[in-house]
Amino acid sequence: RLVGGSRCSGRLEILDDQSWVSVCDAAFDQQDAEVVCRELDCGAPVQVLGEDAFGKGDAQMWTQEIQCRGNESHISLCSISLSHKQSCTSDYDVGLICSGYTDAKLINGSDSCSGRVGLRFLNEWGSVCDACWDMRAASVLCRQLNCGIAVSVVGSDWFGEGSGEIWADVFDCDGNETKLSECSVSSWSRAECSHRRDVGVVCSGSSLAVHDGLVRLSGERQCEGELEVSIHQVWRRVLLDSWSLTESSVVCRQLGCGSVLNFSGSSSSSPEHSHECVTGFQCSGSEAHLGNCSSPQTLNCSSTQQLSITCL
């Protein structure tokens, strides 16, 4: 079993005569990891970690070397060397990150950097439910595909509905990972997922991407806060006047945050935003991101109200 992480990552423990024991990293290698990930139905190993990456275990330490060829279906089928490794304390517990997600692509877009998200779990391709997906996961995917950063997260009305499996794993990415398999998977989503909810992504490397119009919300939570828009590579606050629900719905969709709950004005006094604001966005409501709406004007930020949005 893997302890202290998610279902497919954690400190490795093996059942030895009815008690769980930790495994010493000196006694464990990549072939052994292949077998453990396979046995747990977790795909392939992403990383083997030493030095209590998932906390120190209080279990006894297994110090004999496990010698798998890598093609066994269970670790109990691997041979064990009788010699013990001397340098094994709980500081050397082995940790393991497996991922069933072995490949990714964007399907049905204008190029390889836009499209419906397709992930391969073990050997089967499937689409991803929009309830399980956010801007951070999208950015990791774009980076994995050498497509820059994510510009927007869109629904199935953009790149069509997939067929076959729908993966409802929730990817907890912090956004800095180089591939999706490095993100922990927190849970299986309980959302009602159908192919009508297949998620798509537009990356900055796509011809569909307009670099002006990246958005972020500077709040405590990912889907609410003061709106900032990137215009000519500078982050600017947005003024409340001339803003409507239509523009708000585009922002919430772009962030992968569902529909808009409400928006309001807030008098922000943060000094780094005191002189650059924008106003005058006009959207029809169907755009994938704010950069596709009419161009705004840049104004000095006066004492006028700046915009906060809460998405559902």
Walkthrough of the structure:
- This protein has 312 residues and is mainly β.
- The chain is built from four helices and 23 strands.
- The strands form five sheets. Strands 17, 18, 19, 20, 21, 22 and 23 form a seven-stranded mixed β-sheet that branches.
- It starts with a strand and ends with a strand.
Task: Provide tags for this entry.
single chain; 312 residues; mainly beta; seven-stranded mixed beta sheet; six-stranded mixed beta sheet
Give the count of helical stretches. Answer: 4
Radius of gyration: 24 Å
Give average pLDDT, whole number: 85
Rough outline: elongated
Q: What percentage of residues falls in helices of 4 or more residues?
A: 10-25%
**How many strand units?**
23
Short summary of the structure?
This protein is mainly beta and 312 residues long.
Topology:
Blueprint: E1 2-4, E2 9-16, E3 19-23, H1 30-39, E4 44-49, E5 60-62, E6 64-67, E7 79-84, E8 95-99, E9 101-108, E10 114-121, E11 124-128, H2 135-144, E12 150-154, H3 156-159, E13 165-167, E14 169-172, E15 184-188, E16 200-203, E17 214-218, E18 224-231, E19 234-238, H4 245-254, E20 260-266, E21 277-279, E22 297-299, E23 306-311
Parallel strand pairs: 3-5, 11-13, 19-21
Antiparallel strand pairs: 1-2, 2-3, 2-8, 4-8, 6-7, 9-10, 10-11, 10-16, 12-16, 14-15, 17-18, 18-19, 18-23, 20-23, 21-22
